[in-house]
Amino acid sequence: MKRILIILSIFSTAYLLSPKSPAMPDPVMSDVGAQSGFFYSSLAPHGEWIEVESGARVWRPYNVPDQWRPYLVGRWVWTDDYGWYWMSDEPFGWITYHYGRWYFDDEYGWVWTPDDVWAPAWVEWRYDNDYIGWAPLPPYARFNVRFGIRYTTRWTAPVHYWNIVRYNRFGSVLHYRDTAPEEYARRLIRTGRSGPQFGIDHERIINRGVDRAFIEHRGNVRFARTEVSEIHEQSGERMTRSNDRQHIEIYRPTRDELQRSTVPLQARRGERNFSIDMKKTAQPRAESRTPQMQERQIQRDRQEMRRELIQRHERQKNPVPPSIREDHRQPRSDRRIENSRTAQPNRPTQGRRSGNKNER
């Protein structure tokens, strides 16, 4: 028995000392520390992070009026590549209206939960012949490349989630006075039609919403086609105009940037737990990307790992002397000149220089 215990102890020690693969990140959407360091540092000046149950963190905007709702301060823009695009007038809108989900909590008010999948807007639609409405998707809403939006529990957006306007106001810069009273929202929820939601086209998430031609007809309005282009400056999003056409310039951080933070991750401890069931908000990342995107990312990771292993093996097997390292840092043209000098050692020095100069 003593011998068995000694053997088990040896194996346990070897297991603990052996190198392990890094753990996969927690897929819970609101784990900002694991997934969304960039979100944390970008949104911290405009609101507060609150830590609720199980260490989950949500974000709440500063200084918004009582009648404020997500997707209200801004306007809808039609884009050929992405469908209906929400152009926000708020400094935090380029993140919170294109990533993540919104939820209204009785204790904390409107809060935002992070997610790393970008879309032109995360909303659901209702409409009839007179009004059109949209409401933010809750954290229960999962996006799947094959099925679109699926809910992890039964969900009906409450009346106060909805922004409802007449068709002639849709597409204009909205104000609080433009939205219809709650009784119109109740009627639209009960009797209106549900608009198409999301689709995939060439790895782009499309917010289809209500048909553009129908909106133009009912509201007697016209929507200019707007192009969307990505920029590398961390400046959010902005509308520009050139050659009588509108352009939206957007910044979308890479996966590495999303996990990076320039400030310590701190959040105020909430007085009580979040009213939403956080266990039902888990969203595996692979589910939100197309199979082609996943396969290319896997191939890139494998190629990078293979290249690094080969280079490391070559460096260990054939260490490069300092003189050769210096030669490798020379431009190729200089190395060709050195080779020509070595191959013709009997020519005069002045002749070699003049010949090289003429060749150049």
Write structural notes for this entry.
The protein has 360 residues and is of the alpha+beta class. The chain has helices at residues 2-17, 32-35, 37-43, 93-96, 182-191, 212-219, 255-259, 291-317, 322-328, 332-343, 349-359, and strands at 47-51, 57-61, 74-79, 83-88, 101-105, 109-113, 123-127, 131-136, 141-144, 148-151, 163-166, 193-194, 198-201, 204-207, 226-230, 237-242, 245-250, 268-269. Helices cover 31% and strands 23% of the residues. The strands form 7 sheets. It has a 4-stranded antiparallel beta sheet, covered by helices on one side. A hairpin with a 3-residue loop joins strand 5 (101-105) and strand 6 (109-113). The longest helix is centred in the C-terminal third of the chain and has 27 residues, at 291-317.
Radius of gyration: 29 Å
> Strand portion, in percent?
15-25%
* Strand-pairing-aware structural class: alpha+beta
Strand numbers in spatial order across the main sheet: 11-8-7-12
Fraction in helix: 25-40%
- How many individual helices? 11
What is the string of SSEs from the N terminus onward? HHHEEEEHEEEEEEEHEEEHEEEHEHHHH
Which key terms come to mind for this protein?
360 residues; alpha+beta; four-stranded antiparallel beta sheet; three-stranded mixed beta sheet; 11 helices; 31% helix; globular; disordered C terminus
